[in-house]
What we know:
Blueprint: H1 3-30, H2 36-47, H3 53-60, H4 64-76, E1 80-84, E2 92-96, H5 98-116, H6 123-141
Helix pairs in contact: 3-4
Amino acid sequence: MDKREYIKEILEIIHSLQQYFPKIFGPIIESEGLNTMQIFLLFNIRWNRYPNVGVICKNMNINQGNASILCKKLEQMGYIIRKRDNDDERIVSLSLTEEGNKILDNINEKLYNLIDRNNYITIEKLDVILNGFSELKHAMKSFSVVK
């Protein structure tokens, strides 16, 4: 295969993933009363050492207004705490509440159970998938528009 054929195959796989994701993971996420963007925002807070709204916007590739709306809703639901910086009120730090951590743990557990029940997905296949996604991530970062 030449590079063009590889790119075509990769794009077809990405398209398929976009179709499968909501069908497989949507019910798990919705069972907790949240949507995909809210879950990704919560996970982003968990994965970042010192998250603030600006960091979350960059990581999720969303604008400040959308992030603020998401954060306000999640705060109302009791999953996060927003705190303005004393020195620069434009900076809003984010942290998970105990309830926010609990809901992420619940979702993780449901995902683990889903994978555990699937005999097709072995540790070896998970390793191949992880390595493939890691390579795709590095390839995407190599393009100047993604940096």
